[in-house]
Amino acid sequence: MTHNKGTRIEFRNITKVFKNKKTETKALDDVTLTVESGDITGIIGYSGAGKSTLVRMINGLDTPTSGQLLLDGQNIVGLPESKLRGTRRNIGMIFQQFNLFHSRTAAGNIEYPLQLAGVPKALRKKRVAELLEFVGLGDKGSNYPEQLSGGQKQRVGIARALAVNPSLLLADEATSALDPTTTYEVLNLLRRVNKELGITIVVITHEMEVVRSIADHVAVMEDGRVVEHGSVYEVFSHPQTAVAEKFVATSLRNTPDVIEADDLLAHEGRLFTVNLTENSGFFAATSRLEAAGVSISIVHGGITTLQQHSFGKVTVRLSGSQAAIEEFYATLQRTTDIEEIQR
């Protein structure tokens, strides 16, 4: 398998307005975003946030109303269709519903883009065999799509996307139709594609767990805008926007929900949820509590490791000297986020 130099993508002030006779809809609103060569970037947002429109810009299926889109330094906005075809050959697509030809075998589906590219038959057969092995389907080449599981179909989709050695892979909700175990296997395969082949991958999703599993960076979209962008660790450990906080909460589940909080509040003591990072000062503060005779118990929480950093949240119940508890609260407020859960 060939190791590529992945494509670098730059969105510069991209706006997209869809017009009909009565209304105008701004699908993208002044989007500026860079995806570095060889990176895996997750683009996440709720339905209607603009993420699929953004992807259609990359492969030239849609054109911005204004702004520039650079692939490896070349602005593709306004390129004639003949030149866009050459650009698209460098881009592989993976779809939510697999989009396989039912009349072709797994091998036949993978071979199709090679036929379109005019690759000689012997080289096509060699490449297809190589790709089937790479995606773990070496014995499934003669199977038709209806004879394959959802995960196997998506592996065929990935192999087909890799057939012509692209430098960029776009995965649009590629795991939404799969169960959790199969999702994990497909994401692992995409990670291999990135690490072993050097391909830049843009993953469009509404599932933060997908971003957490695979991405290096994440862009959070809302109402056609990128409202937050950073490393996965930065966005997970310190989300800056309400929409990012909501997405992170669905993946980490490290704070009690309303029902859990009600159950916890039924007992004596005060409850605090503390943000744990490598320099939060939590453990030093709790040792001072114990010296002051305050009892402390952990009642909820979760720790995650991402990009070689550990972070999380813990909810503790404190009982005893109110003065010592207030000092604990004031001390941690200076070094980390701490919030009291109240009735």
Automatic annotation (TrEMBL):
Record has Nucleotide-binding as a keyword: yes
Domain of life: Bacteria
Gene Ontology biological process terms, A to Z: amino acid transport
Function statement: Part of the ABC transporter FtsEX involved in cellular division. Has ATPase activity.
Protein name: Methionine ABC transporter ATP-binding protein
Subunit record text: Homodimer. Forms a membrane-associated complex with FtsX.
Pfam family of the protein (one): NIL
PROSITE patterns: ABC_TRANSPORTER_1, ABC_TRANSPORTER_2
Similarity comment: Belongs to the ABC transporter superfamily.
Source taxonomy: Bacteria, Bacillati, Actinomycetota, Actinomycetes, Mycobacteriales
Keywords: Amino-acid transport, ATP-binding, Cell membrane, Membrane, Nucleotide-binding, Translocase, Transport
GO molecular function: ATP binding; ATP hydrolysis activity
Domain ABC transporter: from-to ranges: 9-248
GO cellular component term of the entry, any: plasma membrane
PANTHER family: AMINO ACID IMPORT ATP-BINDING PROTEIN (PTHR43166), METHIONINE IMPORT ATP-BINDING PROTEIN METN (PTHR43166:SF30)
Keyword Transport on entry: yes
Matches recorded under CDD domains: ABC_MetN_methionine_transporter
